[in-house]
Amino acid sequence: MRSTKGEDVRVLAVAASFRKGSFNQALIRAARELAPRHIRIDDYDLRAVPFYDRDLEAAGDPDEVTALKGAIAGADALLIATPEYNGSVTDVLKNAMDWASRWPPDSRLKDKPVAVMGASPSRGGTRRAQSHLREILNKAGADVIDGPSLYLARAFEHVEDGRLASEDARGTVRETVARLVEAVAIDTAQAVGVVG
To answer: Which of helix, strand or coil describes residue 144?
Structure first.
């Protein structure tokens, strides 16, 4: 579903970390704070989504999977904030992307504008995790926006009391949301034949 002129842009936000004080939750909160008023950013909690199982799928998507697919289909775009675990994305995030992309003709991720960012307490930030996530999303047919890229390293120096305090990082989050909204506008224009 795509927004039309005059309507809010609906962004589904996923922070692939759930601990209290999560740095990636702080990125999503910052995106909500910094987004223009016509941008609605709604959180989605992935913890209830069962691990992908072909037998479960064959019996019909579990309710939690149906809800996930519906939330993605109903959003104009996705905003994902991922930590980096062992050089890659979290298992719960990969699992959600696997469910959302099944089956390829019906992938809820196909042509969906997606922005990726991430925060980590390590010195390396989340470069490898974001690279892997972009590969996963591209394989699923998503429209992953290019830059700006926020690979927030040593995140504990930039997050205070659950809030992203670094003005540089906040500026990058603001720009990421703006680029995502631009991608939605282009996608909408192409859908109605305005852009060739």
So the answer is: strand
